[in-house]
Design goal:
Distance between the termini: 7 Å
Structural class: alpha/beta
Order of helices and strands: EHEEHEHEHEHEHEEEHEHEH
Largest sheet: 5 strands, parallel
CATH topology of the largest domain: Rossmann fold
Shape: elongated
Strand order of the largest sheet: 2-1-10-11-12
Helix content: 25-40%
Number of strands: 12
Length: about 250
């Protein structure tokens, strides 16, 4: 089996030294990047209908860079100045670092987890008498509200943006040896764009438990899965598959 082309359902990495670039060079492959989904912000009017008063919340829980962008976008649209005293609880270092786009890092109270909401439990408990706001999209990992509820926190969700299926009609007659997915929404986009999609010899690569479940539900054959003890990243899983099938 000769693999020649891969389509990754994400934006192209900014760095030319990404693992994908190395795989492409090493194995003489063509790797394209195309987001199968994209994010659209809700306007201030839609947010007001949720009866969100930003002034009520001392603490903001930020789970992604999108959450950061849209929190500050909406507060700006509503002409609400976020107080310097606001505390930010970031799910990961990447989110906390991205927060610097909007605030002076050293002058703010910023708490950082290790990619899981559970990592912030002890910090949440320190401020359990205060109110927390959780900016989200229309989809939300169930573990997040479950954890906040179990801690009996006074929290509220604010849907500030939504995930939308991208138009992929220009790819209708394009064939790739491997399709790479990172979310259930990517699988959904595939079938919304191509309802008659037949996998045949196309290899499907999926990252994460929920993406695996979505692929199985869609009756797709999973050829590459990550993370695993042997392949903690998608690029490692892809390379291992390529080497195995040379």
């Amino acid at each position: 089996m000769k693999l020649k082309t891969i389509l990754v359902s994400q934006p192209e990495p900014a760095s030319e030294k990404s693992p994908y670039a190395r795989i492409q060079e090493k194995h003489k492959l063509k790797i394209d990047f195309r987001p199968f989904i994209h994010v659209e912000g809700l306007n201030a009017k839609s947010v007001r209908k949720q009866k969100i008063d930003f002034a009520e919340f001392d603490n903001i829980i930020l789970t992604s860079r999108n959450a950061v962008d849209h929190f500050f976008r909406v507060t700006n649209e509503m002409r609400y100045k976020v107080p310097d005293s606001t505390k930010y609880f970031c799910l990961s270092e990447a989110v906390a670092y991205y927060l610097q786009k909007y605030v002076v890092y050293r002058k703010r109270k910023i708490y950082v987890g290790d990619k899981r909401i559970e990592d912030l439990k002890a910090l949440f408990k320190k401020f359990e008498s205060e109110k927390f706001l959780l900016p989200t999209s229309d989809t939300l990992n169930p573990s997040i509200p479950d954890t906040l509820d179990k801690l009996n926190l006074n929290w509220k969700r604010a849907q500030l943006y939504k995930t939308v299926v991208s138009d992929l009609s220009d790819l209708r007659d394009v064939y790739y040896d491997i399709l790479v997915f990172f979310s259930p929404s990517g699988i959904e986009s595939l079938f919304k764009n191509f309802p008659d999609f037949k996998q045949n010899d196309t290899k499907i690569a999926v990252y994460g438990k929920t993406t695996v479940e979505a692929a199985i539900t869609a009756d797709l054959r999973i050829d590459i899965a990550a993370p695993s003890p042997e392949s903690p990243s998608m690029t490692m899983a892809i390379e291992k598959f390529i080497q195995k099938n040379k």
